[in-house]
Design a protein that fits this description.
The protein is an alpha+beta fold and 666 residues long. It has 25 helices and 23 strands. The radius of gyration is 45 Å and the shape is flat. Residues 454-463 have a biased composition (Gly residues).
């Protein structure tokens, strides 16, 4: 059957309404239009709406080109669209005399309503508005007559521009609209032309030699009729997302590394379930030990897999090497206990809270009044089934523990295990302490009795009231309550775990403060030359980061107390200024200790000193106050550049007020 056809055979079911017109594009046979009559006498037809639509489209004039000649919407246009582009799986079949004749289809069209009449109505509306706004002013016409006309000649179109224009959507639409329509004639179901066209649906070579018996099996014949759909190429997703189908195309080692990097903690049985069925468990065990460590019978991804070399923390910028040491310590603690305390972890590894929280969230969940508990229950079945792997991992953890003890200067005996408390070790320690106290009680009572007798003689026999000396708030870091069992004083390594107040040779009731090392002086000097204004808490935070970046066993790890840190600051041409914080301030004691660079040998030191004196009277000031005071003290030599530099080095702004760095409360 050739195109364009001169007839159109329609299904009788579709011919419920009269067909006004049928047309098809001459060169694009997939574009078909049908104009179907609307039953205007139906009780469901709104006559007023139909008349309004016809009026909007055609206006009040009566012309042959009108869309609705009867002044009423009495027809509707249906336009074809391709319902599918691949018709190789579809066919038209007809059954006659026990024979099934199948004819392949070249295309399938779906007819949908066209609303082109609404576009015509919009054009009419715009034309009427233009006519109303244009007016008939003769002056305007005269102005138009004398208006100068500029003639321009278009440039010759390049080949590249021509190709873009031809491939544009507007050009294709215009070309399609310019193509002429071919009007079709309808032939009924029993018409002779329809019978003739239906003959093409029957096979004409039934008796030929080409028709052989079916020798295919049912499965092969079904595959010929309905070939399997070719798998579409999977789109490339983001680098951090991988489907299971894509995952199984990778080598076994890469599969396990990708799974562990995303899941982080996994039992061995779950890992085998995610891999391709039939994978050798021995090969999996060999690969898993390269990217994970055994913790309580479960596999936890190694730190260097999550934090590759030359990377850093997204929260604090700490280098990957330091992050790996801190995370390894957290993993090692979970090999000792089911639960750990976050404060204990942070006090030892000395990393920012955000990084510590990330470590814990990788492998644990928080429990009320129990700290952080390991994410999965202990897998004893794996340890029993693979004792050689468990023993190898135990030896590996022993080596990691020895390295961690050197880095963080702690001993395993210093960490009181909850498991030990449950098994009675803690009770044994408590009993030993009671025995020592009971053994020393007679000598203590004797000493106390002697003191009472001496005090009674001095006070007329009324007895002595023992008054406890309060601990100075200015030196909270040297008090007995600040000493950690592992020798850390408020989170800093201390040379002695004993209470400083027990040494009578110090004027402050403690041991003499040692002199700062050259490394500590260099750290303080360089830090304050960059920052200019720092609170004690910020200095300690920066110092912790500096300690974490040093190699294991460095001399700076020892004998650094808060008193030594403050003395080193004061010896680095810095001063502590008293900022009058408000009474309702929530700042901690370390946050209210503000240290500033006082002298650097620059002429700009005088500007900073004037600024510090201003903030010693008020903790927040306005810019004009600072400007006025600088002008009074230094004269007109203070420029805007000096003012901007001063505020940038020493202050932060919020709500039009300026604060010293570190003193702005959230």
């Amino acid at each position: 059957m050739t195109w364009p056809p001169q007839s159109l055979d329609l299904n009788p079911i579709e011919m419920v309404w009269d067909v006004f017109d049928r047309r098809v594009k001459e060169k694009q046979p997939t574009i078909v239009e049908l104009e179907i009559a609307i039953n205007t006498l139906s009780p469901n037809y709104c006559r007023s709406k139909g008349e309004q639509i016809a009026l909007n489209v055609d206006g009040t004039t009566s012309e042959d080109s009108n869309t609705y000649s009867v002044k009423m919407m009495d027809k509707q246009t249906f336009t074809s669209i391709q319902s599918t582009t691949n018709t190789s799986r579809y066919a038209a079949a007809i059954f006659r005399k026990g024979e099934l004749h199948i004819t392949p289809l070249q295309g399938i069209l779906q007819m949908r309503p066209s609303f082109s009449y609404l576009d015509k109505a919009d054009c009419k509306h715009r034309e009427r508005e233009a006519a109303n706004e244009g007016g008939d002013s003769s002056q305007d016409e005269a102005d138009e007559d004398v208006k100068a006309v500029t003639v321009r000649f278009s440039r010759p179109e390049s080949e590249q521009a021509r190709q873009r224009r031809i491939q544009s959507y507007d050009f294709l639409q215009k070309k399609q609209a310019e193509e002429s329509w071919v009007h079709l004639h309808y032939h009924g179901l029993n018409d002779g032309r329809s019978d003739h066209e239906r003959l093409y649906l029957y096979c004409q070579t039934m008796g030929g030699s080409d028709n052989t018996e079916l020798v295919k099996t049912p499965k092969e014949y079904l595959a010929m009729l309905m070939p399997p759909v070719a798998e579409e190429k999977m789109p490339v997703g983001p680098s951090n997302m991988l489907s299971m189908a894509q995952l199984r195309t990778l080598p076994l080692g890469d599969q396990i590394k990708t799974l562990m990097k995303n899941v982080k903690v996994m039992p061995f049985a779950n890992l085998m379930g995610l891999l391709t069925p039939g994978t050798d468990s021995t090969a999996v065990l060999r690969c898993i030990q390269q990217v994970a460590l055994l913790v309580q019978g479960n596999w936890v991804v190694k730190s260097d897999v999550l934090y590759p070399k030359n990377s850093c923390s997204p929260h604090s910028g700490v280098p990957a090497e330091v992050l790996c040491r801190g995370r390894d310590f957290v993993m090692w603690r979970f090999t000792q206990d089911r639960s750990v305390m976050r404060k204990e972890i942070a006090a030892i590894i000395k990393l920012p809270p955000e990084d510590v929280k990330d470590f814990l969230e990788h492998m644990a969940v928080p429990r009320i009044n129990r700290g952080w508990e390991f994410l999965l229950p202990s897998d004893g079945s794996f340890i029993k089934k693979h004792p050689d792997v468990a023993q190898r991992q135990h030896m590996l953890w022993m080596g990691i523990q020895s390295k961690l003890e050197k880095v963080f200067t702690f001993s395993k005996d210093d960490l009181v295990s909850k498991k030990d408390l449950e098994t009675g070790v803690g009770e044994q320690r408590l009993k030993a302490a009671h025995e020592r106290a009971r053994h020393n009680q007679p000598s203590l009572e004797k000493d106390l009795s002697a003191r009472r007798q001496g005090g009674a003689g001095a006070s007329g026999g009324t007895g002595v009231r023992v008054k406890e000396e309060p601990v100075s708030e200015d030196e909270p870091m040297d008090s007995c309550s600040s000493v950690h069992p592992n020798g850390l004083v408020n989170g800093y390594p201390s040379s002695s775990a004993t209470c400083p107040a027990s040494n009578p040779h110090n004027g402050h009731g403690g041991t003499p403060t040692p002199s700062p090392s050259p490394e500590l002086r260099d750290f303080v000097w360089n830090t304050f030359r960059k920052q200019h204004v720092l609170t004690l808490s910020e200095v300690k935070r920066l110092f912790n980061l500096h300690l974490a970046s040093l190699p294991p066993g460095h001399s700076l790890f020892h004998s650094i107390s808060d008193r030594l840190l403050q003395d080193t600051i004061l010896m680095s041409q810095c001063k502590q200024i008293l900022v009058p914080f408000p009474a309702q301030s929530t700042a901690a004691a370390d946050e209210q200790k503000v240290f500033v660079v006082w002298e650097t040998g620059e002429t700009f030191d005088k500007h900073r000193q004037v600024l510090y004196e201003i903030f010693m009277k008020n903790y927040r000031v306005r810019r004009n106050v600072i400007q006025t005071r600088l002008t009074q003290e230094l004269g007109d030599q203070t420029t805007k550049a000096d003012m901007d530099r001063l505020l940038k080095e020493c202050c932060v702004s919020l709500g039009g007020m300026w604060y010293l760095k570190g003193t702005l409360q959230s």
